[in-house]
Amino acid sequence: MRALSMLVLFCLGVMAVLAYHAIRQELSVRDIKDRIEKATKQVRRDEDAIIQAKLKSQEINGILSSLNAKKAELTKKKQDISAAESQVLKNLEDCQFAKPVAESKMTTGYESLQNLKAQQVSDKAKAEQEVKDLKQQIVDKNKMICGFVDMTQEEGRKLCEVAEAPK
C-alpha cells in the first residue's frame, strides 16, 4: 500500500507538473496570440501608412511633373527672351553706328538743298530780269516798227495797240 500510495502520490505530482506545464503553455500561447494580433494590427497600420505615403508620393510626382513642364517652358521662354534681347541690342548697336553716318548724310543733303534753293532763287531772279529785258526789247522794237506802220489799217493798229485810227 505504501507503494500504491507512493505511486498515486507520484502520479498526482506528475499530473500536477503536467497541469502546471499545460497551464503555463496555454498562457504562453495566449500571450503569443495577443502579441501576434497586436503585431498584425501594427503591420496593417504600417501597410496603410505605406499606401498613404505611396499615394502622397504619386500625387507629389504628378505635381512635380507639371512643375517640371512649367519650368522647361519658362526656361525656353527665358532663352527666347534672351535671344530677342541680344538681337535688340545688336540692332541698337547697328543703329547707333549708322546714326552718325545718316546724320552726316542728312546734313549734307540739307546743305545741298539749301544751296539748290539759293541757286534756284538766284536763277529765278536772273530769269525774271532776262524776261523783263526781253519784254522791254520787244516793246522797244514794237515802238520802232510802229513808227513805220500805217495806222490807218486795222492790222497796223493791232500791232501797235492803237484803238482808233488817226484822222
Automatic annotation (TrEMBL):
Identify the keywords attached in UniProt to this record, alphabetized: Coiled coil, Signal
Residues forming coiled coils: 29-144
Q: Which domain of life is it from?
A: Eukaryota
The keyword Signal is annotated on this UniProt entry: yes
Where is the secretion signal located? 1-19
Q: What is this protein called?
A: Uncharacterized protein
Give the species.
Aldrovandia affinis
